[in-house]
Amino acid sequence: MKQDQNIYIIGAGLSGLIAAYELEQAGFSPVILEASDGVGGRVRTDEFKGFLLDRGFQVLLTAYPEAQRYLDYEGLNLKKFNPGAVILKPGTAFSIHDPFRAPSKLLSMALSPVGSLKDKLKIFKLTQMLKSKRIEEIFEEESITTADFLRSFGFSDQIIENFFKPFFKGIFLENGLETSSRMFKFVFKMFSLGHAAVPEKGMQQIAEQLKGKLTKTQIRLNTPVKTIEGSQISLLSGDQIHADRIIIATRPDKLLPQLKGQFKPYRKVINLYFALSHSFIAQPMIALVPDDQFLINNLVFMTDVSKAYSQNGKALLSVSITKEVKDMDKLFSLVAIELEAITKIKAEHFEHIKTYVIDEALPQVEDLSYQLPATNTKVYDGVFLAGDYLLNGSINAAMTAGRKSAEAVILSIQPTY
Questions:
Q1: Could you give the CA distance from residue 165 to residue 154 in angstroms, rounded to a whole number?
Q2: 218-220 and 298-301 strand pairing
Q3: What is the pLDDT of residue 103?
Q4: In sequence order, what E strands does 225-374 have?
Q5: Most CB atoms within 10 A, among 82, 222, 241, 265?
Q6: Contact call for residues 146 and 184 (beta carbons, < 8 A)
Q7: Is the pLDDT of residue 171 over 50?
Q8: Which architecture, in CATH terms, is 51-199+267-362?
Q9: Domain residue spans in the chain?
């Protein structure tokens, strides 16, 4: 095998970093061209005003097979969320718990108005059913909308509106639960087998850890690519690079003219951060706002999960909005009023830190899948694709796609006899 190949990877997100790692294991020394000032792609964390701010509320599901393959969880010092959620409505709040992980919550779960007793038994039934299925089986099953699946499984409107809808709106970043039931079952299975967690010092630590595994890869930051034609990479600076092999680990339709118009728009999310003197949830749990009249879909005090998210003693509140916002100038004041309505804390006490408008938060994938044959990453001779959009919108899929693109490159270089 020729190890002196000029292999370029476009994008230093999770897919690109995994692809580089796998190529290194095979003896190659790739070059990553990254448009931004750091690694991580959509998984980035900023230090700002004494806080760590993830660019959009994100979590790592510890049961992800690919994450278990590549990440050192102990090195990340993962901080786990308590299973379940707090439901916030004006004048009332209640919780949903997993009594099998927290036996002390059995009574409060049984009495919770989140849904009927039948609903809670059905959650147990669904959990056990999905635990017994292989992930590959789940992705081979019939695909219907998540909303239709929940109704067909027998869940009441009460628990769908109180829990499933706001919880999975925050994951799928769409408001009608139209995402395939395959994805719902996969994510629900991952939650039941492991935990939702964040690295102690922010989600970007995942990318930094992967970067730290690279010893023969050159990473060129602030190097945006304009187009790719054949084996020629044109940089925005005007420079030209000839490559023997190219892995596009970013949106390919922006670089390959022949792919323009072939990808659906990405799903969007707005993420606002606020500082408060203390948390009004006071436990590492996500809070859901099921009222459709509100802009807020979910919120969480990141400092309840990891104290390292604040270096100034204040509590850091992350608020996510999945709805379309027509007047961005009034967004902060509207959200502060909503926070007052559900917490009784005066709006002026919510100190706005920063707002992220993330237009490309999650890919829309028509035919969701779990496995990807390496050959399916090839566009044409010498050019390959990597990214979660090839499978499903998840950290697990991003890692899978990166691995498979590297395998395809290696296979394309191996001599034939």
A1: 15
A2: unpaired
A3: 66
A4: 225-229, 232-235, 240-242, 245-248, 267-276, 287-288, 298-301, 315-321, 351-362
A5: 82
A6: yes
A7: yes
A8: Alpha-Beta Complex (3.90)
A9: 7-44+204-263+373-413, 51-199+267-362
